Amino acid sequence: MSFTKGRRRLRGRTVGAVALAVTLVTGGLAAAAHGQEGTRVSAEDAVQAQAASLRDLADQQGVRMGTAVASHLLDQSDYRQTAATEFNSVTHENDLKWETVQPQQGQFSWSNADRVVDFAEQNNQMIHGHTLVWHSQLPSWVENGNFSQDQLRGVMQDHISTTMGRYRGQIGTWDVVNEPIDDNAQFRDSVFYQTLGQDFIAEAFRMADQADPSARLFINDYNIDGINAKSDAYYELVRDLLAQGVPIDGIGFQGHLISGQVPSDIQQNIQRFADLGLEVMITELDIRIQMPATEQKLEQQARDYEGVVNACYAVSGCSGVIVWGVTDAHSWVPDHFDGQGAALPIDSDYQQKPAYWAIHEALGGDPADPTDPPTEDPTDPPTDPPSGDCEADYRVTNEWNSGFQAEVTVTAGDSLTGWTVTWNLGSGESVSHAWNASVSSSGSAVTATDVGYNGTLSAGQSTAFGFVGNHGGSVSTPQLTCTSGS
Ligand code: XIL
């Protein structure tokens, strides 16, 4: 039996209502992390407070949901708690940049960078390393050093090998080169390009690969989220680098976006880079609003976040999203974009915004809103009767212009070891990314089998798996067959 969730209803709620529901019980996200209780607990409050965190959902799906953090804010308990509870990955917002790490030649300073790494380790989080070779936040001794080619190579080599070497085994992915192409889609006129030409990029990647052969190495930039002249230039560049055998593993789309102006072809753009064999990540997502933020603007922003996050999770080569700051109070946007702000999913008071719930739902979260319980759709045909072995129950949990997300619950008839669920895709449908099951398709026939740990079920016991797929205009309701054995 399938049913639709109350996602439109949720989005229709006012920010105030969402904030109130959480504030009354928990005093916000940070307190929720500690399970503190307020004075008045209504049914809605209780359910709302139990909602899974973004981190829980991302972990279940095996995707990255990260944030940028600043070492000096880690003293604040609400900041720490929210960073640890809501995100499974952290990035140093500034503390790992060249000017901080090596402000004078040969003088490395690790205390701020270490604090963030220690925090991530204490909280069992991934770290995306940002960044090694960048024209900005670069100390003057590099920028104005008048180095020869060999000298600058040596300077790069030293910085990359020392920095990556220190965190070998701790930082799994790195922005090796940041922003090497300018807004006119030309190589940026940095000291690296002026001295070494475009080969500085390939050289930096080779040095990084030597420094930590197990790290995954990214190139990263802004305004390359949609298909445009700049992202086309990147497409050519990374294709050339790959053809030359340069060890590049991924591309980061920074995702510094404006609400209402999110490119509509993000998914297509992610797909074309993924098709080159690269991992794609949205590395610095924020979606800014012209202040003051109104309820309507926050709703638009929620749709924007939903679009970006779904575009990533719809492509199997896109491994996740990192938002650029823990809350609106810590975002770089108001300082860098005049009159704009409120760019993150959590507000300055640690309250979830509509954008938060949009991401939550894109990650498969249940809004769990008791005022709008899931209702069965009487037009939905029943799923297959139990075959004796097991029964599979299919529901579409999210749907957007070209994609959808579905969840399949497997319930054992008799106890079984291993299960297989099969169904046929509707016209134009495909499966792009699955979790908690091994899913393959041949033509329109899809086969999903357990992944070991969820294969053994006693009589009546259930387990669920999910997937993201594409559709050709509408989502079908398939008939499923469930059999024992995998
Ligand atoms: C920004 C930080 O958020 C600010 O605090 C700092 O003042 C400037 O840099 N692209 C990047 C990031 O790769 O490093 C930038 O971070 C934002 C744009």
End-to-end span in angstroms? 24 Å
Helix content: 25-40%
> Count of helices?
17
Count all strands and give the number: 22
CATH hierarchy, class of the largest domain: Alpha Beta
CATH superfamily of the largest domain: Glycosidases
The main sheet orders its strands as 2-3-4-5-6-7-9-10
Average pLDDT, rounded to a whole number, is 86
From the 3D coordinates, which CATH architecture of the largest domain would you assign?
Alpha-Beta Barrel
Estimate the global geometry from the Cα principal axes. Answer: globular
| Main β-sheet description | 8 strands, parallel, barrel
Bound molecules: (3S,4R)-3-hydroxy-2-oxopiperidin-4-yl beta-D-xylopyranoside
User: How many structural domains are formed by the residues?
Assistant: 2
Structural class: alpha/beta
Compute the CA-based radius of gyration. Answer: 24 Å
Uncertain ranges: 1-27, 33-49, 369-380
The CATH topology of the largest domain: TIM Barrel
How much strand content do the residues show? 15-25%
